[in-house]
Amino acid sequence: MSVMESTDSVTEAQRKKIIAQWVRPGKFYKETVRAGDIHEFHCKIMNIVKRLGFSDYSCIPLYNPTALNEFLLSSYPKKLRQDYTAGGFHKYDIVLSWAQRSAREKNAPTPVYQSAITYWMLSAPIKTDYILMNQELLSMVRRYGYRDCYNIAKKAYCNANNAILFSVAIRNADTLRLAEKIQAHEFTLELLAQTIDYVGSTLFPEYFTGAATPSADIDREGLLLLQKMGEVDCTLKRAMDLLNMKHRTGNYHMARLRETLGVETNCGALFEAIKRGLLTPRV
């Protein structure tokens, strides 16, 4: 049911929940877009994750090999990340394989609990090296206090043939407690993963795509508006509405961006941003 449909058949609480689901993306956008660097971006994401009741998260663009080594957008313990890299687990990690396959599917993939994958591994009739490495990975993760996690795979904003993997967990919590939190925030987590991918690939392309990061004098909000205009082929006013940005604020940021790029129109700004490599193309 969409927000525009009649709400006579739903309760007031359900109606508020439906409306909140459409407001929340703008809230995440406003909170994350002002990050000055990738570390600040990570801290803003972590604040959101903790407010939702989770202890840790990670977001990995699987098409950028460097991201698998650096783990810049991850709150899992540093030693755990180091052990993961040193053990070469990224070559066998079944969750990474699942996320990559999901990107090639026509329909959006269904999120999956780590415990569901664990059950499949334990019931496998033949213990191949692939299965044994994943079992070893599972044991290592549990030693750090993570008994389960919730994984979301999404088609990458800047590369529809690849995926980003977003996961959340509650340290030292069982699957039941994690599932209770997921049930309360399932749709919110989907929106958060989408926001991280969109804002991150625009502002910090060196992490999401391996491209150069826009210089500090480029107006970031203006750049995001320009990206949205090109993405959906819409006017500036429509782009501001899609990003839940006030028109006065949006016009201010676009004016700053045009001045920095040395152009007079939004079309000129779009052309100049593409020429300078400031916008991330979708493929």
**Number of β-strand runs:** 4
Largest sheet: 4 strands, antiparallel
**Mean pLDDT figure:** 80
Percentage of residues in DSSP E strands: 5-15%
Care to describe what's here?
This protein has helices spanning 12-32, 38-51, 65-70, 78-86, 94-103, 114-122, 129-143, 175-203, 205-208, 220-232, 236-242, 247-261, 266-275, and strands spanning 56-61, 112-113, 149-155, 163-169. By secondary structure, the protein is α+β, with helices and mostly antiparallel strands. The protein has a 4-stranded antiparallel β-sheet with strand order 1-4-3-2, sandwiched between helices. Helix 10 crosses helix 11, helix 10 packs across helix 13 and helix 12 (247-261) packs across helix 13 (266-275).
Quick tags:
283 residues; alpha+beta; 4 strands; elongated; disordered N terminus
Topology:
Layout: H1 12-32, H2 38-51, E1 56-61, H3 65-70, H4 78-86, H5 94-103, E2 112-113, H6 114-122, H7 129-143, E3 149-155, E4 163-169, H8 175-203, H9 205-208, H10 220-232, H11 236-242, H12 247-261, H13 266-275
Antiparallel strand pairs: 1-4, 2-3, 3-4
